[in-house]
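step=encode ok
step=design start
structure_in=
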């Protein structure tokens, strides 16, 4: 007996892991496959008759309307991404393939959940520009921000400052308490540095126990000195619970201010670095 393929189509559609939507000219859902419950949390009977745009994340509505217009003009869209709000209120990232059926006067779309993929991509992008231990800006992104800040300072004749910080005797912390504790100390310092600056400033970890702070739109040496005092005091505060009575850490810091100490990134970095090592040397000789 020959197989009636057309009779199998509904069963095949409901077996698909991706969700099939059929939507009329007015964006009303006329059919949705069973996979929708896994995608959006709704059973098919809860969605038929509803406008599909009601389920979209508001931030995606404008771009989605443009995609709908494209599809309805006869141009399939096979790689469109947007976000929907699930029944439980959570957000799902969806990759769509859609086309318009002129004969049936409906849009046919296949939706795939790519939330995990998007999250993985975002994590990789974050790691490319941030320190894996502390989550601070890394050297690469910091260099870009410094160049952008210098361009703005030249254009608007404003000031900026670099603060180089190195944790004093950090090797002895690792040797005495282990690298895991040393890592926790670095993370604690990172959070304290972030708490001392504005959103327009940047805190970065250059590697090891070296940090740098970029202060933008700061005009006077007095303002820079006050910020440095605030930062060194924050770093030197007691480490608190979980550090088994460890003594507070301290840091050596060097400062470079634009344009007084240099007019480009290389000179400013070198000036601040050298100033930090001179200060560390004085600490060592006086200790």
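sequence_out=
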């Amino acid at each position: 007996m020959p197989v009636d393929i057309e009779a199998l189509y509904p069963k095949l559609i409901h077996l698909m892991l991706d969700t099939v939507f059929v939507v009329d000219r007015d964006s009303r859902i006329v059919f949705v496959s069973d996979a929708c419950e896994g995608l959006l949390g709704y059973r098919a009977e809860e969605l038929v008759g509803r406008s599909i745009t009601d389920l979209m994340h508001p931030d995606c509505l404008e771009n989605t309307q443009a995609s709908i217009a494209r599809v309805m003009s006869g141009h399939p869209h096979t790689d469109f991404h947007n976000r929907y709000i699930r029944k439980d209120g959570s957000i799902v990232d969806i990759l769509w393939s859609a086309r318009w059926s002129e004969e049936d006067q409906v849009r046919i779309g296949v939706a795939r959940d790519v939330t995990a993929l998007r999250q993985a991509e975002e994590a990789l992008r974050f790691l490319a520009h941030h320190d894996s231990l502390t989550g601070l800006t890394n050297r690469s992104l910091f260099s870009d921000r410094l160049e952008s800040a210098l361009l703005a300072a030249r254009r608007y004749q404003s000031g900026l400052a670099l603060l180089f910080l190195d944790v004093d005797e950090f090797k002895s912390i690792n040797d005495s308490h282990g690298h895991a504790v040393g890592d926790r100390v670095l993370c604690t310092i990172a959070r304290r540095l972030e708490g001392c600056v504005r959103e327009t400033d940047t805190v970065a970890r250059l590697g090891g126990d070296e940090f740098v702070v970029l202060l933008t739109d700061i005009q006077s040496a007095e303002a820079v000195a006050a910020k440095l005092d605030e930062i060194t005091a924050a770093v030197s505060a007691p480490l608190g619970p979980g550090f088994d009575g460890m003594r507070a850490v301290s840091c050596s810091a060097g400062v470079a201010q634009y344009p007084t100490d240099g007019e480009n990134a290389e000179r400013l970095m070198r000036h601040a670095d050298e100033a930090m090592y001179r200060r560390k040397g004085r600490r060592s000789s006086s200790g």
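step=design ok
step=annotate ok -> The chain is about 45% helix and 25% strand.
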